[in-house]
Amino acid sequence: MALSSHGTGSETGASVGATVGSATGPAGSDSPVTPRPTRGLMTLLLVGNTAMYALYIGVAGVLLALQIEDVDPANKVSNFGLVAGVSAIFATVFNPVAGALSDRSGRRNPWILGGGLLALPVMFLLGSVHTILLVTIMWCLGQAVMNVYQAAITSVVPDRIPVSARGKASAAVGLGLPIGSTVGALVGAAFSEDYRTGYLVFGAVVAAAAVLFTTCAREERMPPKAPVPVKQQITAFGSALKNRDFLWAFIGRALLMLGYFAIAVFQIYILQDHTKLPEGLSPEGAIAILTPIGSVAMVIATVLGGWLSDRFDRRKLFVGASAAITALSLVIPAVSTSWAAMTAFTIINGIGFGCYMAVDTALVTMVLPKAEDAARDMGVLNVANAGPQIIAPFVASLVVSLSGGGYTALFVVGAALSVLGALAVRPIRGVR
Protein backbone atom coordinates (compact mmCIF):
# COMPACT_ATOMS: atom_id res chain seq x y z
CA MET A 1 0.00 0.00 0.00
CA ALA A 2 1.08 3.47 -0.42
CA LEU A 3 0.72 4.69 2.85
CA SER A 4 1.90 5.17 1.72
CA SER A 5 2.12 4.87 3.04
CA HIS A 6 1.06 6.13 3.07
CA GLY A 7 -2.38 9.97 7.36
CA THR A 8 -3.20 12.96 9.80
CA GLY A 9 -7.04 19.08 14.36
CA SER A 10 -10.11 17.66 13.23
CA GLU A 11 -13.29 18.92 11.67
CA THR A 12 -16.13 19.19 14.18
CA GLY A 13 -18.85 19.53 11.60
CA ALA A 14 -18.31 22.93 10.07
CA SER A 15 -16.48 23.11 6.80
CA VAL A 16 -13.23 25.00 6.89
CA GLY A 17 -13.03 27.49 4.03
CA ALA A 18 -11.89 25.38 1.12
CA THR A 19 -11.13 26.64 -2.32
CA VAL A 20 -12.19 25.02 -5.53
CA GLY A 21 -9.72 25.12 -8.36
CA SER A 22 -5.98 25.48 -8.18
CA ALA A 23 -4.05 28.24 -6.58
CA THR A 24 -2.39 30.67 -8.87
CA GLY A 25 0.23 31.68 -6.35
CA PRO A 26 3.02 29.64 -4.79
CA ALA A 27 2.04 26.34 -3.34
CA GLY A 28 2.96 27.41 0.11
CA SER A 29 0.74 30.48 0.15
CA ASP A 30 -2.93 31.17 -0.11
CA SER A 31 -4.27 31.65 -3.58
CA PRO A 32 -5.16 35.19 -4.61
CA VAL A 33 -8.26 33.77 -6.21
CA THR A 34 -11.40 34.36 -4.12
CA PRO A 35 -12.17 31.04 -2.38
CA ARG A 36 -15.43 29.37 -3.23
CA PRO A 37 -16.49 27.33 -0.19
CA THR A 38 -17.25 23.67 -0.64
CA ARG A 39 -19.58 22.65 2.17
CA GLY A 40 -18.51 19.45 3.86
CA LEU A 41 -15.21 19.10 1.99
CA MET A 42 -13.37 18.15 5.18
CA THR A 43 -15.89 15.40 5.87
CA LEU A 44 -15.64 14.13 2.30
CA LEU A 45 -11.84 14.04 2.55
CA LEU A 46 -12.19 12.01 5.72
CA VAL A 47 -14.58 9.54 4.10
CA GLY A 48 -12.52 9.22 0.93
CA ASN A 49 -9.28 8.56 2.80
CA THR A 50 -10.94 6.25 5.33
CA ALA A 51 -12.17 3.99 2.52
CA MET A 52 -8.73 3.95 0.93
CA TYR A 53 -6.92 3.01 4.13
CA ALA A 54 -9.55 0.41 5.02
CA LEU A 55 -8.73 -1.39 1.79
CA TYR A 56 -4.98 -1.03 2.22
CA ILE A 57 -5.01 -2.34 5.81
CA GLY A 58 -7.71 -4.97 5.40
CA VAL A 59 -6.34 -6.42 2.18
CA ALA A 60 -2.56 -6.06 2.52
CA GLY A 61 -2.48 -6.45 6.30
CA VAL A 62 -4.91 -9.33 6.76
CA LEU A 63 -6.55 -11.02 3.76
CA LEU A 64 -3.53 -11.03 1.43
CA ALA A 65 -1.20 -12.37 4.14
CA LEU A 66 -3.61 -15.17 5.03
CA GLN A 67 -4.26 -16.01 1.39
CA ILE A 68 -0.52 -16.30 0.70
CA GLU A 69 -0.05 -18.43 3.80
CA ASP A 70 -2.79 -20.81 2.60
CA VAL A 71 -1.15 -21.15 -0.83
CA ASP A 72 2.34 -21.95 0.54
CA PRO A 73 2.64 -21.99 4.36
CA ALA A 74 6.33 -22.93 4.45
CA ASN A 75 7.42 -19.91 2.39
CA LYS A 76 4.90 -17.34 3.60
CA VAL A 77 7.50 -14.71 4.62
CA SER A 78 9.47 -14.75 1.37
CA ASN A 79 6.32 -15.03 -0.78
CA PHE A 80 4.61 -12.17 1.00
CA GLY A 81 7.75 -10.08 0.67
CA LEU A 82 7.80 -10.81 -3.05
CA VAL A 83 4.13 -9.98 -3.62
CA ALA A 84 4.28 -6.80 -1.52
CA GLY A 85 7.51 -5.61 -3.11
CA VAL A 86 6.58 -6.23 -6.74
CA SER A 87 3.12 -4.71 -6.33
CA ALA A 88 4.58 -1.65 -4.63
CA ILE A 89 6.53 -0.95 -7.83
CA PHE A 90 3.18 -0.39 -9.52
CA ALA A 91 2.18 1.94 -6.71
CA THR A 92 5.39 3.92 -7.17
CA VAL A 93 4.89 4.26 -10.92
CA PHE A 94 1.16 4.93 -11.05
CA ASN A 95 1.01 7.53 -8.28
CA PRO A 96 3.10 10.31 -9.88
CA VAL A 97 1.93 9.40 -13.38
CA ALA A 98 -1.73 9.64 -12.35
CA GLY A 99 -0.99 12.92 -10.55
CA ALA A 100 0.60 14.39 -13.65
CA LEU A 101 -2.30 13.24 -15.83
CA SER A 102 -4.84 14.86 -13.51
CA ASP A 103 -2.75 18.06 -13.58
CA ARG A 104 -2.80 17.95 -17.37
CA SER A 105 -6.55 17.32 -17.54
CA GLY A 106 -7.31 20.10 -15.08
CA ARG A 107 -9.58 17.74 -13.08
CA ARG A 108 -9.31 15.55 -10.00
CA ASN A 109 -12.80 14.09 -9.67
CA PRO A 110 -12.75 11.88 -12.80
CA TRP A 111 -9.56 10.22 -11.59
CA ILE A 112 -10.95 9.70 -8.10
CA LEU A 113 -14.11 8.19 -9.58
CA GLY A 114 -12.32 6.03 -12.13
CA GLY A 115 -9.81 4.60 -9.67
CA GLY A 116 -12.48 3.98 -7.06
CA LEU A 117 -14.88 2.19 -9.40
CA LEU A 118 -12.13 -0.01 -10.84
CA ALA A 119 -11.25 -1.20 -7.35
CA LEU A 120 -14.39 -3.34 -7.24
CA PRO A 121 -13.69 -5.66 -10.22
CA VAL A 122 -10.00 -5.86 -9.35
CA MET A 123 -10.83 -6.98 -5.80
CA PHE A 124 -13.22 -9.57 -7.22
CA LEU A 125 -10.44 -10.99 -9.39
CA LEU A 126 -7.94 -10.97 -6.52
CA GLY A 127 -10.28 -13.08 -4.43
CA SER A 128 -10.69 -15.58 -7.27
CA VAL A 129 -7.04 -16.64 -7.75
CA HIS A 130 -5.12 -19.42 -6.01
CA THR A 131 -1.46 -19.18 -7.01
CA ILE A 132 1.32 -16.82 -5.89
CA LEU A 133 1.86 -15.63 -9.46
CA LEU A 134 -1.80 -14.71 -10.00
CA VAL A 135 -2.06 -13.14 -6.55
CA THR A 136 0.94 -10.97 -7.45
CA ILE A 137 -0.57 -9.90 -10.77
CA MET A 138 -3.97 -9.09 -9.29
CA TRP A 139 -2.54 -7.13 -6.35
CA CYS A 140 -0.35 -5.20 -8.80
CA LEU A 141 -3.54 -4.16 -10.59
CA GLY A 142 -5.06 -3.31 -7.22
CA GLN A 143 -2.11 -1.07 -6.40
CA ALA A 144 -2.36 0.60 -9.79
CA VAL A 145 -6.05 1.57 -9.56
CA MET A 146 -5.81 2.55 -5.89
CA ASN A 147 -2.90 4.87 -6.59
CA VAL A 148 -4.82 6.57 -9.39
CA TYR A 149 -7.48 7.23 -6.74
CA GLN A 150 -4.93 8.23 -4.10
CA ALA A 151 -2.92 10.60 -6.29
CA ALA A 152 -6.03 12.58 -7.21
CA ILE A 153 -7.61 12.74 -3.75
CA THR A 154 -4.26 13.70 -2.18
CA SER A 155 -4.07 16.72 -4.48
CA VAL A 156 -7.40 18.12 -3.26
CA VAL A 157 -5.72 19.66 -0.18
CA PRO A 158 -3.14 21.85 -1.98
CA ASP A 159 -5.74 22.61 -4.70
CA ARG A 160 -8.63 23.76 -2.55
CA ILE A 161 -7.46 24.42 1.02
CA PRO A 162 -5.84 27.75 2.06
CA VAL A 163 -2.55 27.40 3.91
CA SER A 164 -4.06 28.74 7.14
CA ALA A 165 -6.29 25.66 7.32
CA ARG A 166 -3.80 23.08 6.08
CA GLY A 167 -3.29 21.62 9.54
CA LYS A 168 -7.02 20.99 9.92
CA ALA A 169 -7.26 19.64 6.39
CA SER A 170 -4.27 17.38 6.99
CA ALA A 171 -6.00 16.14 10.12
CA ALA A 172 -9.18 15.36 8.17
CA VAL A 173 -7.05 13.41 5.71
CA GLY A 174 -5.00 11.80 8.44
CA LEU A 175 -7.96 10.67 10.50
CA GLY A 176 -8.73 8.39 7.59
CA LEU A 177 -5.72 6.27 8.60
CA PRO A 178 -6.75 5.28 12.15
CA ILE A 179 -10.43 5.01 11.28
CA GLY A 180 -9.72 3.17 8.05
CA SER A 181 -7.21 0.92 9.80
CA THR A 182 -9.80 -0.06 12.40
CA VAL A 183 -12.46 -0.74 9.78
CA GLY A 184 -9.98 -2.63 7.62
CA ALA A 185 -8.69 -4.80 10.46
CA LEU A 186 -12.16 -5.67 11.75
CA VAL A 187 -13.58 -6.45 8.32
CA GLY A 188 -10.44 -8.36 7.36
CA ALA A 189 -10.62 -10.47 10.52
CA ALA A 190 -14.34 -11.07 10.01
CA PHE A 191 -13.75 -12.43 6.51
CA SER A 192 -10.44 -14.23 7.19
CA GLU A 193 -12.09 -17.52 6.20
CA ASP A 194 -13.91 -16.07 3.19
CA TYR A 195 -11.43 -14.09 1.11
CA ARG A 196 -13.65 -13.50 -1.90
CA THR A 197 -16.42 -11.82 0.09
CA GLY A 198 -13.91 -9.79 2.08
CA TYR A 199 -12.23 -8.49 -1.06
CA LEU A 200 -15.60 -7.57 -2.55
CA VAL A 201 -16.58 -5.65 0.58
CA PHE A 202 -13.42 -3.54 0.44
CA GLY A 203 -13.81 -2.89 -3.28
CA ALA A 204 -17.42 -1.82 -2.78
CA VAL A 205 -16.48 0.55 0.07
CA VAL A 206 -13.89 2.36 -2.07
CA ALA A 207 -16.24 2.54 -5.06
CA ALA A 208 -19.03 4.00 -2.91
CA ALA A 209 -16.65 6.55 -1.37
CA ALA A 210 -15.50 7.64 -4.83
CA VAL A 211 -19.09 8.14 -6.00
CA LEU A 212 -19.97 10.09 -2.84
CA PHE A 213 -16.91 12.35 -3.05
CA THR A 214 -17.24 13.20 -6.72
CA THR A 215 -20.98 13.78 -6.43
CA CYS A 216 -20.79 16.09 -3.41
CA ALA A 217 -17.40 17.79 -3.87
CA ARG A 218 -17.93 19.46 -7.21
CA GLU A 219 -14.89 21.12 -8.71
CA GLU A 220 -14.08 23.83 -11.19
CA ARG A 221 -11.93 22.76 -14.09
CA MET A 222 -8.42 24.09 -13.73
CA PRO A 223 -6.62 25.39 -16.82
CA PRO A 224 -5.45 22.24 -18.61
CA LYS A 225 -1.78 21.94 -19.48
CA ALA A 226 -0.49 21.74 -23.02
CA PRO A 227 0.94 18.35 -24.03
CA VAL A 228 4.68 17.99 -23.39
CA PRO A 229 7.11 15.40 -24.78
CA VAL A 230 7.41 12.16 -22.82
CA LYS A 231 11.11 12.78 -22.13
CA GLN A 232 10.30 16.18 -20.72
CA GLN A 233 7.56 14.67 -18.53
CA ILE A 234 9.99 12.11 -17.12
CA THR A 235 12.53 14.83 -16.40
CA ALA A 236 9.83 16.93 -14.72
CA PHE A 237 9.09 14.18 -12.20
CA GLY A 238 12.52 14.72 -10.67
CA SER A 239 12.53 18.51 -10.90
CA ALA A 240 10.81 18.90 -7.53
CA LEU A 241 13.71 17.10 -5.84
CA LYS A 242 16.02 19.92 -6.91
CA ASN A 243 14.23 22.07 -4.36
CA ARG A 244 16.26 21.70 -1.15
CA ASP A 245 13.37 21.81 1.32
CA PHE A 246 11.25 19.42 -0.75
CA LEU A 247 14.19 17.02 -1.02
CA TRP A 248 14.67 16.87 2.75
CA ALA A 249 10.92 16.41 3.28
CA PHE A 250 11.09 13.55 0.78
CA ILE A 251 14.06 11.92 2.54
CA GLY A 252 12.47 12.22 5.98
CA ARG A 253 9.19 10.70 4.80
CA ALA A 254 10.99 7.87 2.99
CA LEU A 255 13.11 6.90 5.99
CA LEU A 256 10.24 6.87 8.46
CA MET A 257 7.99 4.96 6.06
CA LEU A 258 10.70 2.38 5.45
CA GLY A 259 10.96 1.80 9.20
CA TYR A 260 7.19 1.67 9.53
CA PHE A 261 6.53 -0.73 6.66
CA ALA A 262 9.39 -3.03 7.60
CA ILE A 263 7.21 -3.91 10.61
CA ALA A 264 3.71 -3.35 9.22
CA VAL A 265 4.02 -5.72 6.27
CA PHE A 266 4.63 -8.66 8.62
CA GLN A 267 2.19 -7.71 11.39
CA ILE A 268 0.19 -10.91 11.31
CA TYR A 269 3.31 -13.06 11.05
CA ILE A 270 4.84 -11.19 14.00
CA LEU A 271 1.75 -12.01 16.03
CA GLN A 272 1.97 -15.63 14.91
CA ASP A 273 5.69 -16.22 15.47
CA HIS A 274 7.05 -13.51 17.82
CA THR A 275 4.41 -12.37 20.31
CA LYS A 276 3.25 -14.63 23.12
CA LEU A 277 -0.50 -14.20 22.84
CA PRO A 278 -2.91 -14.95 25.70
CA GLU A 279 -4.47 -18.40 25.70
CA GLY A 280 -7.28 -18.66 23.17
CA LEU A 281 -6.40 -15.46 21.29
CA SER A 282 -5.66 -15.97 17.58
CA PRO A 283 -3.40 -13.65 15.57
CA GLU A 284 -6.44 -12.43 13.62
CA GLY A 285 -8.23 -11.74 16.89
CA ALA A 286 -5.16 -9.92 18.18
CA ILE A 287 -5.20 -7.63 15.14
CA ALA A 288 -8.88 -6.90 15.76
CA ILE A 289 -8.00 -5.83 19.32
CA LEU A 290 -4.76 -3.96 18.68
CA THR A 291 -5.90 -1.96 15.67
CA PRO A 292 -8.74 -0.08 17.44
CA ILE A 293 -6.45 0.60 20.41
CA GLY A 294 -3.77 2.01 18.15
CA SER A 295 -6.36 3.93 16.19
CA VAL A 296 -7.68 5.72 19.28
CA ALA A 297 -4.14 6.77 20.17
CA MET A 298 -3.55 7.85 16.58
CA VAL A 299 -6.78 9.89 16.43
CA ILE A 300 -5.91 11.77 19.61
CA ALA A 301 -2.38 12.48 18.41
CA THR A 302 -3.60 13.42 14.94
CA VAL A 303 -6.15 15.93 16.23
CA LEU A 304 -3.77 17.49 18.76
CA GLY A 305 -0.82 17.45 16.37
CA GLY A 306 -2.66 19.20 13.55
CA TRP A 307 -4.24 21.76 15.88
CA LEU A 308 -1.07 22.54 17.85
CA SER A 309 1.08 22.84 14.73
CA ASP A 310 -1.38 25.41 13.35
CA ARG A 311 -1.61 27.24 16.67
CA PHE A 312 2.14 27.53 17.23
CA ASP A 313 3.08 27.58 13.55
CA ARG A 314 5.76 24.99 14.22
CA ARG A 315 5.89 22.00 11.88
CA LYS A 316 9.48 20.76 12.14
CA LEU A 317 9.41 20.47 15.93
CA PHE A 318 6.30 18.29 15.89
CA VAL A 319 7.50 16.19 12.95
CA GLY A 320 10.87 15.49 14.55
CA ALA A 321 9.46 14.73 18.00
CA SER A 322 6.74 12.42 16.68
CA ALA A 323 9.23 10.47 14.54
CA ALA A 324 11.42 10.04 17.63
CA ILE A 325 8.41 8.72 19.60
CA THR A 326 7.73 6.27 16.79
CA ALA A 327 11.31 5.03 17.05
CA LEU A 328 10.99 4.63 20.82
CA SER A 329 7.85 2.52 20.41
CA LEU A 330 9.73 0.04 18.22
CA VAL A 331 12.21 -0.69 21.00
CA ILE A 332 9.49 -2.13 23.25
CA PRO A 333 8.68 -5.33 21.28
CA ALA A 334 12.39 -5.69 20.54
CA VAL A 335 13.13 -6.28 24.23
CA SER A 336 9.94 -8.16 25.13
CA THR A 337 7.74 -10.67 23.30
CA SER A 338 4.85 -10.34 25.75
CA TRP A 339 1.30 -9.36 24.83
CA ALA A 340 1.62 -6.37 27.18
CA ALA A 341 4.70 -5.17 25.28
CA MET A 342 2.90 -5.45 21.96
CA THR A 343 -0.04 -3.52 23.37
CA ALA A 344 2.26 -0.75 24.69
CA PHE A 345 4.03 -0.63 21.33
CA THR A 346 0.71 -0.24 19.55
CA ILE A 347 -0.38 2.70 21.72
CA ILE A 348 2.92 4.61 21.63
CA ASN A 349 3.42 3.93 17.94
CA GLY A 350 -0.10 5.23 17.26
CA ILE A 351 0.69 8.45 19.12
CA GLY A 352 3.97 9.02 17.31
CA PHE A 353 2.86 8.01 13.83
CA GLY A 354 -0.48 9.82 14.06
CA CYS A 355 1.14 13.11 15.04
CA TYR A 356 3.84 12.64 12.41
CA MET A 357 1.45 12.12 9.53
CA ALA A 358 -0.78 15.01 10.63
CA VAL A 359 2.00 17.58 10.75
CA ASP A 360 4.25 16.20 8.02
CA THR A 361 1.42 16.33 5.49
CA ALA A 362 0.91 20.01 6.31
CA LEU A 363 4.66 20.61 6.12
CA VAL A 364 4.92 18.98 2.71
CA THR A 365 2.17 21.14 1.21
CA MET A 366 4.18 24.19 2.33
CA VAL A 367 7.37 23.18 0.52
CA LEU A 368 5.81 22.27 -2.85
CA PRO A 369 7.88 24.11 -5.47
CA LYS A 370 5.00 25.19 -7.76
CA ALA A 371 1.25 25.37 -7.20
CA GLU A 372 0.46 24.51 -10.83
CA ASP A 373 2.39 21.24 -10.45
CA ALA A 374 0.89 20.36 -7.07
CA ALA A 375 -0.52 16.96 -8.04
CA ARG A 376 2.62 15.92 -9.87
CA ASP A 377 4.85 16.97 -7.00
CA MET A 378 2.59 15.36 -4.40
CA GLY A 379 2.81 12.25 -6.57
CA VAL A 380 6.60 12.50 -6.45
CA LEU A 381 6.39 12.89 -2.67
CA ASN A 382 4.15 9.84 -2.53
CA VAL A 383 7.05 7.88 -4.00
CA ALA A 384 8.46 8.33 -0.47
CA ASN A 385 5.36 6.45 0.70
CA ALA A 386 5.29 3.79 -2.00
CA GLY A 387 9.05 3.44 -2.55
CA PRO A 388 9.75 2.07 0.92
CA GLN A 389 7.04 -0.52 0.31
CA ILE A 390 9.18 -1.87 -2.52
CA ILE A 391 12.25 -2.12 -0.33
CA ALA A 392 10.66 -2.94 3.04
CA PRO A 393 9.40 -6.48 2.28
CA PHE A 394 12.78 -7.54 0.93
CA VAL A 395 14.70 -5.80 3.73
CA ALA A 396 12.38 -7.27 6.34
CA SER A 397 12.63 -10.77 4.86
CA LEU A 398 16.42 -10.51 4.79
CA VAL A 399 16.63 -9.23 8.37
CA VAL A 400 14.32 -11.97 9.64
CA SER A 401 16.23 -14.66 7.75
CA LEU A 402 19.67 -13.49 8.86
CA SER A 403 18.50 -13.27 12.47
CA GLY A 404 17.43 -16.91 12.40
CA GLY A 405 13.74 -16.39 11.89
CA GLY A 406 13.28 -13.89 14.71
CA TYR A 407 11.78 -10.42 14.58
CA THR A 408 13.79 -8.63 17.31
CA ALA A 409 16.40 -7.38 14.86
CA LEU A 410 13.63 -6.11 12.59
CA PHE A 411 12.26 -3.87 15.35
CA VAL A 412 15.76 -2.49 15.98
CA VAL A 413 16.26 -1.68 12.29
CA GLY A 414 12.84 0.00 12.16
CA ALA A 415 13.70 2.15 15.19
CA ALA A 416 17.01 3.26 13.65
CA LEU A 417 15.30 4.27 10.41
CA SER A 418 12.68 6.28 12.32
CA VAL A 419 15.42 8.21 14.16
CA LEU A 420 17.04 9.09 10.85
CA GLY A 421 13.64 10.21 9.57
CA ALA A 422 13.28 12.54 12.56
CA LEU A 423 16.69 14.09 11.93
CA ALA A 424 16.00 14.63 8.21
CA VAL A 425 13.58 17.52 8.79
CA ARG A 426 16.18 19.66 10.56
CA PRO A 427 17.79 21.08 7.37
CA ILE A 428 14.42 22.37 6.03
CA ARG A 429 14.60 26.19 6.00
CA GLY A 430 11.31 27.38 4.53
CA VAL A 431 9.12 26.03 7.35
CA ARG A 432 9.54 26.50 11.09
SS summary, helix count: 16
Unreliable segments of 5+ consecutive residues: 1-35
Radius of gyration, in Å, reads 20 Å
CATH fold annotation: Growth Hormone, Chain: A
In CATH terms, the superfamily is MFS general substrate transporter like domains
Shape: globular
Total discrete domains: 1
Biggest pleated-sheet summary: none
Task: Please provide the count of β strands.
Answer: 1
* Share of β-strand residues: under 5%
Helical amount among residues, as a percent range? Answer: over 70%
Order of helices and strands: EHHHHHHHHHHHHHHHH
CATH class equals Mainly Alpha
Class from helix and strand fractions: mainly alpha
How far is the first residue's CA from the last residue's CA? 30 Å
CATH architectural designation: Up-down Bundle
What do the pLDDT scores average to? 80
